[in-house]
Amino acid sequence: MSLAACGVSAPPASPQVSALPPATLSYVNWFATGNAQDVLFQHQSGLFKGRHPQLTVEEIKRGPGVTMLEKYLSMAAAGTTPDLAALNPQFVEPLRARGMLADLTRYVKRDAQTFKPDDFYPATLLRTTRDGKWHAIPLQMGLWFTVYNRTLLQEAGLPAPDGSWTWDTALQMARTVKDREPGVLGMAFPPYELPVRDNGGEILTTDEQRCLLGELRAIEAVQWIGNLRTKHQVVPPPQETTGQNAQTLFTSGRYVFHVGDPGFLSNVQRAKPVFSWDIAVPPKGKAAHVSTVKGPSLVISKDSAHQDAAWAWLADYTGVEMQRYVSLEGKMVSARKSALEEFVKLDEGFDKRVLLTVAAMARPMPYVAKFDELDKEIDAGLDAVYTGMQAAAIAMPETARKVNLILQAP
Fold first, then answer.
1. CA distances from 272 to 43, 44, 312, 327, 348 (A)
2. I need a labelling partner for 154 at 20 to 30 A (CA). Which of 38, 118, 195, 252 fits?
């Protein structure tokens, strides 16, 4: 499908950037060949070069065995800080806190009419802005939603999940199908933050200074998740999955449903399961009904000698037209409202309206500067509960104590 076929016209060059001096920009990312971002980069490169022949954007791939944070810091240490970078959500704040990211606020305000900052889902901006300043531009939305096996539910006489289903309903459904079908294992553990937040708990305080996972509502939710395996046996132990991941277990018909993201959904589409399937919102809890928003963002380095040129490219790449293109061509869930709305219009055999509903209820993780450190401690605490080694009432207060030490450390 061409850009013209999508009804998209190339945006005219902005008068603010038409006289930019020649420059070669370096752009580091981890996107593989064939990935939606690779599709967009190849498409946009020719159009951008036509409008700005004096500007060249050279891609640098992260390489195996390192994170984007490690790649960025190693390039900076070598004196080759990239002009532009794609960052996982947990890496934006560590670099901003180090003073390594350019403040993009002046550009966003200057070009508000064409760039349309209000077109981004508000939840995506919480990982890209601090104190009213823009330090990154959201690119994608990694949303949690439920992918379910419609055939298994129908054969068991169970209704399809809808906006009213709860975590306890999900448990009962998984148990009913598992008891009826010997080859079905049930489900995988859901992302812990969903039951915790749905139960009225939270990960950190709003000022991000203290961990709340040791509080009663969070403890209740984590124990409920652990009980899915240790008590109800609807989450299989590792020996029963024989090394297969959730993707394979779902597409082979062994999981009733799975709380996954757009990447999981794309893989299900490509696998073409022999059974009927669809998507639904995640279950809700006693106190709330939420999802999580993740996804990469783009940044400009503070040390870039070509910030104006870098913004010209970034604003084009993350702009309304290019994001609409990649949503239609790359089947990507964009951080832009207009792009996601266009994607939802495509009939691909599942209820895409769910994505709009989930986007509206999504909240970010607390992406503090030390997120990776505290995330490892949280994973360790959860694992102790999920394996039955400790009750949540013991594991989670200790986890909160360790997280608080990380938060309080200079």
1. 28, 30, 40, 21, 12
2. 195
Burial of 372 (0-12, 13-18, 19+ CB in 10 A): middle
Kindly report, as residue ranges, where domains of CATH 3.40.190.10 are found in the chain: 23-141+295-364, 143-292+370-408
Alpha-carbon span 299 to 252, nearest angstrom: 39
Which strands make up the sheet holding 145-149, listed edge to edge? 257-260, 145-149, 277-280
Cα 215 to Cα 393: distance, rounded to the nearest angstrom: 9
Topology of 143-292+370-408 in CATH? D-Maltodextrin-Binding Protein; domain 2 (3.40.190)
How far is the C-alpha of 69 from the C-alpha of 90, rounded, in Å?
Answer: 9
The tens place of each residue's pLDDT in the chain, 410 residues long, gives 333 344 444 444 444 455 899 999 999 999 998 889 999 999 999 999 999 999 999 999 998 999 999 999 999 999 999 999 999 999 999 999 999 999 999 999 999 999 999 999 999 999 999 999 999 999 999 999 999 999 999 999 999 999 999 999 999 999 999 999 999 999 999 999 999 999 999 999 999 999 999 999 999 999 999 999 999 999 999 999 999 999 999 999 999 999 999 989 989 998 999 999 999 999 999 999 999 999 999 999 999 999 999 999 999 999 999 999 999 998 889 999 999 999 999 998 999 999 999 999 999 999 999 999 999 999 999 999 999 999 999 999 999 999 999 999 98
Sheet with strand 84-87: strands edge to edge: 55-61, 23-29, 84-87, 297-300, 137-138
CATH number of 23-141+295-364: 3.40.190.10
In angstroms, the CA 91 to CA 74 distance is: 14
d(CA 112, CA 344): 25
**Strands in 265-370 per DSSP E:** 277-280, 291-294, 297-300, 362-364
Q: Is the dihedral of CA 22, 27, 32, 37 positive or negative?
A: negative
Q: CA–CA separation, 17 vs 88, rounded Å?
A: 28
Give Cα 96 distance to the centre of its chain. Answer: 20
Three-state DSSP class for 85?
strand
User: Token match 């073409």: residue?
Assistant: 272
Q: How far apart are CA 327 and CA 331, in angstroms?
A: 5
